[in-house]
Amino acid sequence: MIKAGVIGATGYAGEELVRILYSHPMVEIKYLGTKSYEGERFSKVYGNFFNIIDEECILEDLDKFAEDVDVIFTATPQGFLGSHLKEEMLSKVKIIDLSADYRIKDVDVYEKWYGIKHESPELIKKAVYGLSEINREDIRNTKLLANPGCYTTCSILTLYPIVKEGLIDINSIVIDAKSGTSGAGRGLKTANLFCEVNESIKPYGVGTHRHTPEIEEQLSFASGKEVKLIFTPNLIPMYRGILATCYGKVKDGVDENQIKKAYEKYYKDEHFIRLLDKGVYPETRWVKDSNYVDIGFKLDERTGNLVMIGAIDNLVKGAAGQAVQNMNIMFDFPETMGIDKVPNIL
Amino acid sequence: MIKAGVIGATGYAGEELVRILYSHPMVEIKYLGTKSYEGERFSKVYGNFFNIIDEECILEDLDKFAEDVDVIFTATPQGFLGSHLKEEMLSKVKIIDLSADYRIKDVDVYEKWYGIKHESPELIKKAVYGLSEINREDIRNTKLLANPGCYTTCSILTLYPIVKEGLIDINSIVIDAKSGTSGAGRGLKTANLFCEVNESIKPYGVGTHRHTPEIEEQLSFASGKEVKLIFTPNLIPMYRGILATCYGKVKDGVDENQIKKAYEKYYKDEHFIRLLDKGVYPETRWVKDSNYVDIGFKLDERTGNLVMIGAIDNLVKGAAGQAVQNMNIMFDFPETMGIDKVPNIL
Amino acid sequence: MIKAGVIGATGYAGEELVRILYSHPMVEIKYLGTKSYEGERFSKVYGNFFNIIDEECILEDLDKFAEDVDVIFTATPQGFLGSHLKEEMLSKVKIIDLSADYRIKDVDVYEKWYGIKHESPELIKKAVYGLSEINREDIRNTKLLANPGCYTTCSILTLYPIVKEGLIDINSIVIDAKSGTSGAGRGLKTANLFCEVNESIKPYGVGTHRHTPEIEEQLSFASGKEVKLIFTPNLIPMYRGILATCYGKVKDGVDENQIKKAYEKYYKDEHFIRLLDKGVYPETRWVKDSNYVDIGFKLDERTGNLVMIGAIDNLVKGAAGQAVQNMNIMFDFPETMGIDKVPNIL
Amino acid sequence: MIKAGVIGATGYAGEELVRILYSHPMVEIKYLGTKSYEGERFSKVYGNFFNIIDEECILEDLDKFAEDVDVIFTATPQGFLGSHLKEEMLSKVKIIDLSADYRIKDVDVYEKWYGIKHESPELIKKAVYGLSEINREDIRNTKLLANPGCYTTCSILTLYPIVKEGLIDINSIVIDAKSGTSGAGRGLKTANLFCEVNESIKPYGVGTHRHTPEIEEQLSFASGKEVKLIFTPNLIPMYRGILATCYGKVKDGVDENQIKKAYEKYYKDEHFIRLLDKGVYPETRWVKDSNYVDIGFKLDERTGNLVMIGAIDNLVKGAAGQAVQNMNIMFDFPETMGIDKVPNIL
Asked: How far does the CA of residue C192 sit from the closest CA of chain A (Å)?
């Protein structure tokens, strides 16, 4: 049994994390840290926890948490962990950061895309990028885990085997991604009101979204060459779910079988990755409330395009679920413990 | 470990049941019975089960199931179990019926409101009405369990302590209930298309809905007097959830404290019933995906009205969850086993 | 051709008003007043107006507007007009107030339910309550029109003929109303975020909602006796629409025909009120985007309850549409001018 | 004043058409033709028309309609008009076909993608492809108008100036389109039920959707070269709206200004096409319920991609609205007559 502290427990990713950890057989939640709801009962902030977690939220305090728990999850805005983390903390506690602070290895790229100065660049190299299925061995041994973004988890996992095996032209990649609104968080913005989101779809951050360099860096590692791509996120009127539709031109002579084989090579034993049958494409409802990643593809021989489609639940595999999967790996628990739920279509 | 068979596994309540049973530590699902999808893989009918339950659905066959399993769930249209059940089956298998066939003790009332002839009226008296919190002891000993309806579970539990304690005028009860669309099932009707349900609310079956006599009969048992009431269901554009808003005129001299006490008397030790704080009213999202029942009330002294509001998830406490709660009681498993989930607001 | 100024043009009711007025053949919109978006192009605040109304919003200024236009619409929070209106303005301009400031004749009742001091109580008697179908003649001659609330328009019109004709027990009235989320306005509140509203229904202000005394006062005028009733509003996950389900005990001997006759007596020549056929109940989609009021009823002889159900579009008949209907009456334009749209189900 | 007959009036596109035509100052609707609702009052099929159009629907009969009306709209499944139209009808009546039967000039392509034999291939050359802004002059003189598809209208208009001016590599085009559910029609399919569509996004017909060859053929005409592209449609949980996100590699040296100029060259005087400001991208709510097309673009110099994004209302500009726009052109009415509505965000 380990003790956990959650910083940013009152956001949507935080709530999801608390919900998963509450039912995890090896975890006791010790602290619920918040910036906006200090002193409020957690069940007042989230009525679903009434009679379940009635403890008060406390002010987020990295130092204090580091003394008293075995693992800290930071579900905080960018810059929080980067400016609060000190190296010595890592001798006391393991940290799983759901923000972007330690995801990107090239600090210049981070500072350029995020528009903030990184306060602890020397710690970036200590961090492991927590895409569980790809970096499992490094995750096992790290104290500082950079949990991947939602769009990035979905996009990278969908493209990884194809890029790694060199089956598409690396300069032709287009990612058109669609996300439910929980990804926008619980902050107060007019754009997130029900009457603004409902019955509409909108693209945003076209070519400038911060998940772009994260995807590019990881795919460059896979490819061995520099990958640059265009990434367009869209907001759609639903709670949860991300669909990443990835396009690339196949190299001459590549056939359907090779593509299938590439996916199987990397994923056939992965519990949380499901390679769909030919002609079946992912729908977000099929992975809703679960840690699964569904992947399907279409080789369009008519035009030479390979369409690779992935779906995840942005709050689970795209945030809290993968964070717990990584925690399981880091603490040597069974990897699926506490997150092995059947998806919930309704 | 017991073996279970589900008849009607391919409807929405059936799917929910399969999902709960799949994760239940004491149950093995042996048969998935269907009328419409015979020979189809279950994961083809519900893509969320891909790689999880890839077995084929088989034709629903009560006799065969009765030979091979310990418990049969029938999530079927009205009339199925009534016309297929024979008394001798009950010596071999326990049956939990999610249809209305054995819920109403007065067969004339059943036949009048449902417009079908009951084919096995002699078995009605063998059935126990499975409102777990109210009839727990009888449930423990029955072989034939009539699992309550969704609207009825919510309405009866919300009204029960108040009616039982005689705090309102029994002739003044009004129930205005609102339900998500999964309650309408997966059948093909124009009225259930996305474009017909979305962005609208509609009342239906005003004063004639079949759940009316079920509520009346149970409340009459509680009251000791005949209860007649007006019940108006409404369909709203969401998946899951029922809110039952119940109105009654309080008897002279009844105060807020007495009402609070009445609820506590019956429910204070009930795990799945949460009595909300004063001034807090149920919202369906706070019980979503869970077996909880949230209850709040307002005594309006200005007009003498007591407003009692209850919320459940129609597919869980209103169908599959309560069915499993009843199974747990009938097989002497811990009552919350497999259904003790934190509600999921997103 | 008249000139109009809209104060509060950047809220949802304001936007609807601007949209209707823009297409009204007899109106030129001169000023778009705002509190929050001064100096912003209107088409920046509402992208649908791009290339249509690109004028800047200006600070709301009642005095200035009164000099330059023929009619001012105030779609503002409670208290704005009450504290800014001076009697002499009414000699220069007609005012249609979409707030509650002049709706309630009894200033004590206003101050108690709204919790604010009325700054110009002497003007209340100059105001006409603008329920177009009921007070048409008084509306024609007023300079100060108090445009009814959304819930109140729907509730009063649904109950009016029955109460006026004395067909139900005045002490038995229950109103259970459901509203789309645009009624909550465009203000920034966590409760109005997409992820909070979606997939849930919640009651609020049970027995304390401010529309209660407005309904009671008008029905008391109709009845000749003091009416007190319980009113429960609910928020549902859709944009537009209000359904008001009204319950009352019919007096002895009242039959269906009398009820039908009562509705026909008051409404049979009303263009915007549609009395549905027997057995048909209103659905909000059937009045969406229109100024229609649909009314249906069910006399439940089994219990003596009369269920009266009305539906409107909260932003049209419940706000901007009725405001324009009243403007048409006040300026002697054809009453349906600019608002005679077929409802839009999709 | 002209007389119109609508065949397929009881589908969603048909209903939209009837609603627009009902308010059109120069049109009288003479016949409402249906396959499924013969003899039913139109207001029974669509309750919004209660007290507005209570006439009965009649069996669809092209010959009879051709005798009695000036224009026939066919909002029917593919194959209906192709198998019923005879050349002599075109001397009596103008026909606007909302199906695909006469859209594609190359009959082999039609037969291959639609999988049906074309029964009147000789009439294809008589038809004009009714993309109003592109083919206005030909539309003016035709008797047989092939109204474009919804995805195609949005995709072609978004790409046309760029392809016509040769600014992108013709072999690099990717279209990722998203549509509301009304595009799927009112037919009874499990996949269109509320509980299947809500809270999910799904791609379908990846690389095989029938709108692909229609887009390719029109862009090939524009380009002068054969265009082949990959087209992926997605279904999202909303009523109305299509967003087409189009990607292409810009040719060397092409800059933002050239792209802007290209759009302005073709569209700057087009009433229904709005070229958004730099950095603003279309959202479907901004064109909802209107005939507008909003277009925005992003030149991503980092990767050489041009992202061109268009939004329409699938039922208006994507079906009924453009059909009426074409009717206006064909009958020499003002082109915007009856369809010049401000978009409705709520």
From this structure: 6
